[in-house]
């Protein structure tokens, strides 16, 4: 049973998705992202030796007039400002928009943490990447097919959060010599590496790999290198003589600590295991026609940590390539978000790239306590609920039928008008149901109250893109009695909604309370749809409401206001 409160559950992508059959091409670019000697690294001390160059590697997908850029850089993390700078620079070079660009760190700790104090490095690396991208465009290759595969990486990933004495969380870092921590269970991980291959006919053009674990073996020695993921990537490129791009998945709580003691021998084993999984993932891939390229963006505002700054909206991005769904996430998300994404679309190969916009820091679970990660997070509850909900609906393709059931005209509009506007804008069907529109023989401006209120609600629904359903009960006659419950249940059974949203049950207005009870009875006896609650006039009518999901009105605020203004008889300025 899914009964949650409030409305941002609907993570409906606002970015473009192309559905045509235009030819597709891919340009692959690579540029140097190595830090100069003396530059700070994620693991101290600063850079003293360049053991292996750091790279930015990416692809530019073109289909018709649409162009998208996806890149990975051998850095630890990047600030929101750095992420935004890369998006602007690469979008300018590609001739597209910033919201069609995403860049992700591989999270090597032998690379930099790119913050606001490292502007010179960021600008120089962005210039190099932009130049490499522009030079790659004329060399773009046709893409007709996509291959998808996966394979388990042996003895690599383990959960960093190990339950210790009395339930205390003990951190099992990437390099662990403690025999008790080495002996502890692997814990929750996603052991599979996923590979997406773009092909021209039967010829592979570029391969993209995704795996959820911190990549570092040993570090904090001043040596600059891309670590295990970079060396495995290079090994496969030499073997196949085609480009490979590596993305670290949702690995905020995943390290190699159980299998890595920080020795050169352990590093060699880790590289071998990662490269072997890449080979097996490629060998087991299934190939199918590419079809359309889908790019869907939805902004989400995560909840700030207590005492922290208000976070800015962050884009979640879904890239669809044939049979593959690639989810691009910010921060250092826990592996639970990656596993959730895979559960949402079990019919598809779902790959996850984490470590995009680093503003949130670690993205823990709402129940996470103890250990290292919560202390380095800039977001807090209910971030898990919000982000998982956004992921769920970002990855869904099915159009929804939603009923927003209010006691009176203006209840759905005031409580959920922004949501309704966004749902209908994205092609979903919304029905605004009204339990009652009049009180006995009351008139408004010489007309029966029911006529006026229905006319106002119908006008509001037209603005919101919804349809209206009016029940013919007077205020004083509407109750949650068996006869009325039968009528409401029969109507909902006929409509067959996917979701119903209605009043929170604890409400001082008898009509609100009655409608909530009627919907609940229909849900309890028949169900088949999800039930959510909204609030109206909290503290005066809605009581005891504790929202745990939120909805961003950006882009639909004025639509909601225009719909409310239709209810001229109800003093809409006061409602707004």
Question: What's the topology here?
Answer:
Blueprint: E1 3-5, E2 24-32, E3 49-50, E4 55-63, E5 66-73, E6 77-78, H1 80-94, E7 101-105, E8 113-114, H2 119-136, E9 141-143, E10 145-152, E11 158-159, E12 161-163, E13 169-171, H3 179-183, E14 192-200, E15 203-211, E16 223-224, H4 227-240, E17 244-248, E18 254-255, H5 264-283, E19 286-289, E20 293-300, E21 314-321, E22 324-328, E23 332-333, H6 335-344, E24 349-353, E25 362-363, H7 383-394, E26 401-406, H8 411-425, E27 429-438, E28 443-444, E29 447-448, H9 449-464, E30 467-474, H10 482-495, E31 499-503, H11 510-525, E32 530-534, H12 557-565, H13 572-575
Parallel strand pairs: 1-32, 3-16, 5-7, 6-8, 15-17, 22-24, 23-25, 26-27, 26-31, 27-30, 31-32
Antiparallel strand pairs: 2-4, 2-9, 4-5, 10-14, 10-19, 11-18, 12-13, 14-15, 20-21, 21-22, 28-29
Helix pairs in contact: 1-2, 4-5, 6-7, 8-9, 8-12, 9-12, 10-11
């Amino acid at each position: 049973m899914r009964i949650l409160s409030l409305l941002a559950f609907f993570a409906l992508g606002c970015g473009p998705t192309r559905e045509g059959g235009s030819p597709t091409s891919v340009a692959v670019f690579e540029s140097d992202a190595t830090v100069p000697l003396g530059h700070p690294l994620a693991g101290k001390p600063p850079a003293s030796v360049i053991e292996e160059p750091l790279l930015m590697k990416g692809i530019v997908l073109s289909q018709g007039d649409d162009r998208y850029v996806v890149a990975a850089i051998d850095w630890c993390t990047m600030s929101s400002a750095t992420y935004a700078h890369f998006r602007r620079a690469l979008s300018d070079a590609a001739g597209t928009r910033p919201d069609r660009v995403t860049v992700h760190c591989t999270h090597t700790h032998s690379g930099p943490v790119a913050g606001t104090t490292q502007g010179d490095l960021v600008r120089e690396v962005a210039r190099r990447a932009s130049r490499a991208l522009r030079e790659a465009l004329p060399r773009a290759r046709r893409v007709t097919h996509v291959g998808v595969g996966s394979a388990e990486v042996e003895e690599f990933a383990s959960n960093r959060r190990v339950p210790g004495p009395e339930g205390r969380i003990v951190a099992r870092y990437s390099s662990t010599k403690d025999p008790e921590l080495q002996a502890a269970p692997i814990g929750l991980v996603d052991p599979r590496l996923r590979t997406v291959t773009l092909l021209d006919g039967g010829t592979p053009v570029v391969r993209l790999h995704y795996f959820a674990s911190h990549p570092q073996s040993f570090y904090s020695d001043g040596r600059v290198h891309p670590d295990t993921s970079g060396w495995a990537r290079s090994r496969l490129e030499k073997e196949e003589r085609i480009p490979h791009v590596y993305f670290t998945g949702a690995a905020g709580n995943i390290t190699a600590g159980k299998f890595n003691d920080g020795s050169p021998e352990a590093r060699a084993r880790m590289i071998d295991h990662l490269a072997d999984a890449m080979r097996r993932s490629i060998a087991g891939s299934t190939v199918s026609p590419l079809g359309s390229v889908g790019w869907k963006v939805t902004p989400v505002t995560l909840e700030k940590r207590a005492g922290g700054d208000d976070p800015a909206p962050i884009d979640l991005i879904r890239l669809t390539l044939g049979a593959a769904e690639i989810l691009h996430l910010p921060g250092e998300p826990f592996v639970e978000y990656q596993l959730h994404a895979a559960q949402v679309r079990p019919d598809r190969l779902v790959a996850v790239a984490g470590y995009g916009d680093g503003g949130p820091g670690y993205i823990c679970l709402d129940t996470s306590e103890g250990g290292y990660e919560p202390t380095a997070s800039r977001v807090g509850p209910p971030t898990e609920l919000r982000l998982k909900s956004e992921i769920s609906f970002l990855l869904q393709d099915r159009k929804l039928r939603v009923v927003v059931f209010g006691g009176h005209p203006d209840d759905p509009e005031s409580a959920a008008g922004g949501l309704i506007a966004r749902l209908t804008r994205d092609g979903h069907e919304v029905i605004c149901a009204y339990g009652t529109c009049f009180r006995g023989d009351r008139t408004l401006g010489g007309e029966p109250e029911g006529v006026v209120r229905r006319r106002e609600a119908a006008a509001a629904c037209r603005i919101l893109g919804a349809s209206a359903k009016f029940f013919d009960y007077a205020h004083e006659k509407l109750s949650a009695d068996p006869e009325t419950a039968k009528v409401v249940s029969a109507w909902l059974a006929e409509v067959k909604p996917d979701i119903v949203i209605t009043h929170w049950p604890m409400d001082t207005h008898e009509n609100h309370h009655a409608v909530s009870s009627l919907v609940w009875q229909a849900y309890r006896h028949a169900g088949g749809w999800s039930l959510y609650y909204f609030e109206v006039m909290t503290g005066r009518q809605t009581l005891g409401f504790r929202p745990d999901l939120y909805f961003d009105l950006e882009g639909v605020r004025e639509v909601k206001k225009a719909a409310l203004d239709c209810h001229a008889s109800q003093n809409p300025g006061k409602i707004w």
